[in-house]
């Protein structure tokens, strides 16, 4: 992913509240538009970097289950 995209997304959401982030994520998912995926990727990257090993492990376990179907 291009670092300019990361920087732009980070600048656009700087200072947002938890409720606003939830709205952004839910809106992006409900639209299903592929051009919104890089933004969700930046959110995921930031979350991953700040998560504990146990949180990361729980997440990848959920992914394993989600993609098993």
UniProtKB/TrEMBL annotation:
Induction info: Expressed only in the forespore compartment of sporulating cells.
Record's subcellular location: Spore core
Domain of life: Bacteria
Pfam family, one: SSPI
The keyword Transferase is annotated on this UniProt entry: no
Keywords, in A-Z order: Sporulation
UniProt-listed GO biological process terms: asexual sporulation; sporulation resulting in formation of a cellular spore
InterPro entries reported in the protein's UniProt record: SspI
HAMAP family: SspI
Family: Belongs to the SspI family.
UniProt-recorded name of the protein: Small, acid-soluble spore protein I
Taxonomic placement: Bacteria, Bacillati, Bacillota, Bacilli, Bacillales
